[in-house]
## 1
Amino acid sequence: MAVTWSTQTLANESYVEYSLWNEELTLRENATISKFIDGSSAHRVLYMYRAILKNLTMNTVYIYHVGSLNGWSGIYSFRTIPNEKRKLFAVYGDLGVVNAQSLARLQKEAQLDYYDAILHVGDFAYDMDSDQSRVGDQFMNQIQEIAAYVPYMVCPGNHERIYNFSNYKSRFTMPSNGDGENLWYSYNFGLAHIISFSTEVYFWWEYGFAQISNQYRWLEQDLKWATASENRTKYPWIITMGHQPMYCSNANQDDCTFYDSRPRSGLPYIHTYGLEKMFYDYGVDLELWAHEHSYERNHNESKPDIAL
Ligand SMILES: [Fe+2]
């Protein structure tokens, strides 16, 4: 379990203290510290702390707090994933600081242990970099009352792109088996192999054109692993999440309204690195998207027995 937090002044030797429920926080994991410098001219500084709690027991409630000798957070709790194969997720994208109509319900239900994980499919805060990244602070404080209790899994959206996704990369800690900066990664959860990737590599080439091919090659390798027979038997559901959809029926001239949407068919004109064929060939079962601020679902005609 990864725990991530931030402070405005440096607190050396910070850590997570934790224990089983009703015990006395006797376990400790040191945090790694990194300096975040906001990309605006004010160069506001935050310090980011990450600690990975290891050797946890499944389906067990732990309590923890984070901090240092300079001060401690309140005490929070989380439950490690249960042994049962059924898992419950809350899935959404495009959640802002203003008009966050779902926030109260999500906070309450996360605290009441309704979910095994949250999947936030890109676009945070609107925007995290605003006001020298203070809007990012405000957003993280809002979702703290969710993410302190339940794994909060993310992928990048177009609203994270400023300063090369630096707020997004710095404020979350996702599995490190992809690019190592939260842009693409995968993990197994219950019966599912879940892949998070960046549709943004298709749109913001100023941050490195090579990211498109790097991610594409990684996705293919990851899907090869997931479809090896012993893995597919163990994790029969392959689920992807990316922010900008391959398809939509909105009339707003966004990328997904075009026949050749970039995540679907690849780069304009040359049509390389498109994901539709790869996801089809490897039998991806469910693709989760956001960005359009509307609800749509599409039936997979290649698998008529699956209703989405
Ligand atoms: Fe978006």
## 2
Amino acid sequence: MSSVIRKVALVGGSGRLGPYLLKALHSDPAFDVTVITRTNSTATFPEGTKLIKVADGYPDDEIVKAFKGQDAVILSLGYQGGQHHAALAEASKKAGVKRLITGWGGNVANQEAMEIFPIGKKVAEDIKALEAMESPEWSWTAICCGLFFDFCLEVGFFGIDALTKTATIWDDGEQKFSVTARPTIGLAVTKVLAHPKETANRRVYISSFQCSLNEILDGYKTITSSEGWNITKVTSEEMVANATENVKKGENVMYSIGRLGLATAVKPGLQADFAAEGILDNQMLGLETNESSHEIIAKVLKA
Ligand SMILES: NC(=O)c1ccc[n+]([C@@H]2O[C@H](COP(=O)([O-])OP(=O)(O)OC[C@H]3O[C@@H](n4cnc5c(N)ncnc54)[C@H](OP(=O)(O)O)[C@@H]3O)[C@@H](O)[C@H]2O)c1
């Protein structure tokens, strides 16, 4: 395959992650970006964004036509759009696209983590299907970025709340895990596209930094106040058991799935600290990050 990727299509350019991918791609003159959005979507995009509208459900004939002439396709689909992952991957190959980029989760290579977290399991299965599709003309990259640090803070995903001064700390709170802020994920995607050879047919591990629940709590305390916090201690074993049971019973499902997602980061032994595992690709990509957890916490609290 020619080593240059210039024309890039982004499916799911709105949503929680998409705008950050789009911003990074737009900021890099190396790329000519087209967003593929659904006809019935209410999403809006920055002025000047090249758009192709396709019918909801991404019908094959429309999507193959939309992908024609693109060097790379990026899929950033959420829970609902994720059902189209396999068909969109096949369509990219049919259209002559060289590289498909997907992923956006934790360490999908860790079997136990994927068994715990149903969404992670689906991502791991999607990646397995991509492995079976590899050809000299078509390849894939799965970005493993750990939790979206900024997003997780915004929605209280870590179980730490500055308003009520409450925090739930799993085990001793010291387990380190890799996290990435969404602007850095966007930047990393441009680096992946600039390194097609090194990133072909593999998981690419990135992070803004490694942190622990205790460090995040310290960040909140430093920025707000260290007094008056009410800390609940739980074990990862009990959290996983309870959340798994709730999902099975159909009780509190979204919250419980979220706890299982957090478990893939904070439960010991799940290889969620990419730096400690020696699998981090920041250096190979030339991805320089000088973010700090405290800075991002302060920014999110201010907003
Ligand atoms: N690691 C983490 O902490 C973390 C956190 C959140 C998400 N993620 C991952 O990031 C990726 C993107 O997730 P996201 O949360 O950004 O996705 P999202 O906001 O739910 O959806 C992204 C886009 O998918 C398109 N879409 C296609 N079919 C859809 C449907 N039936 N309903 C709604 N939207 C549909 C929409 O684009 P148009 O409207 O333009 O068509 C939508 O804006 C996923 O792989 C997700 O698992 C990871």
